[in-house]
Amino acid sequence: MAGKGPVPNLEKILANLGIITPRAMKSLLIEEYEAKNSPKALETEEGLRKAREACTPLFVGRPGIGKASAAIQAGVEIAKRLGRIPVVLLMGYDETEVARKVPAKGILEAIEEAEQEGVITGEEAEQLRGILVKGEGFLISPGAAEARDLLLSLARKKKIFPVLALRLDLLEVGDLIGYPRVVKYKFVRGETTIFSTPWYIELLIAAKHGLLILDGFTQIVDPVMRRKADAIVRDRVVGFVALPPGVMVVALGNAKPLPSTTMGRLKMWKVRP
Fold first, then answer.
1. Among 216, 207, 248, which Cα is nearest to 54's?
2. CA angle at 226 for the pair 236 and 182, rounded to the nearest 5°
3. Domains of the chain (ranges plus CATH)?
4. Can you tell me whether residue 262 is helix, strand or coil?
5. Percent share of the chain, pLDDT over 90
6. Whose C-alpha in 61, 85, 234, 264 is 20 to 30 A from the C-alpha of 217?
7. Which three-class secondary structure state does DSSP give residue 59?
8. Which residues have a Cβ under 8 Å from the Cβ of 113 and sit 6 or more positions away?
9. Residue 15: is its pLDDT beyond 60?
């Protein structure tokens, strides 16, 4: 069964891990993305194969040392290098965490630069500022329908780079794979149940390039969430949809054991201040 397998010796694994600082972690993620997931890296069939088969980086360390912030900052920098607007969405975090983790100044600068260079119109820039910035200037996860529609439209036009951070140990399974809904077919008798993909996952699919951060990856308790999270690492599948090769997956967590079937698809680093 997916996600099962013997648990490797954690102490032995941790003893052999490379140690990295949050700043070095940010640089490493940028390098990894440019080498395996950037538009240039995906120009050939060999590049596409490497992106699909690449192991997911897992950074472990005690809470509060800046793992999530480093990953988000890396995503913002990658977006700038691609000439896209970074759109940072955090699911499962409280407002205090959002304010601390998101580099709002850099995002606002990216919106201004995109407007000046004609990547987005003045109207689109104003709409982005309106739905993404609140209070002291930190980014929030927009929930209004008009925000979703605007972001999905910009994603399809390749104007934004989603940086989606999911706090998996605090989210429900439906927040990851969607919730079921009944659909009735007119051309046949009967009905069926399908899962509606969450709009923020659709955003990654539409943009074709982005960063998916699986925070709390090692702390997941729910067995169903564990299997679904492991499937993202092993198969690059979120629920019922496959991630484009231009989307890089990053896992964060504490030093806790994982099944060998999952460990085989991870590259681990130990993060210290």
1. 248
2. 75
3. 32-38+52-271 (3.40.50)
4. helix
5. 42
6. 85
7. strand
8. 80
9. no
168-180 pLDDT tens trace:
998 999 888 887 7
pLDDT in tens, 219-260: 999 999 999 999 999 999 998 899 999 999 999 998 777 777
- Residue 145: count other Cβ atoms within 10 Å of its Cβ: 9
Question: 């200037």: which residue's tokens?
Answer: 137
* Residue with the two structure tokens 């977006």: 79
Angle (nearest 5°) at CA 43 between 38 and 47: 75
**Residue 234: is it exposed, middle or buried by C-beta count within 10 angstroms (0-12/13-18/19+)?**
middle
Distance CA 181, CA 173 (A): 15
Residues with Cβ within 8 Å of residue 261, at least 6 apart in sequence: 2, 3, 4, 5, 230, 234
Structure tokens at 190: 């009967």
Whole-model pTM?
A: 0.85
Q: What tokens does 100 get?
A: 């601390």
Query: What does the block give as tokens for 146?
Result: 């008009």
Query: Averaged over 92-102, what is the pLDDT?
Result: 68
Residue with tokens 């052999």: 16
Tell me which amino acid residue 197 is: T
Instruction: Kindly state the helix (H) or strand (E) to which residue 164 belongs, with its residue range.
Output: strand 160-167
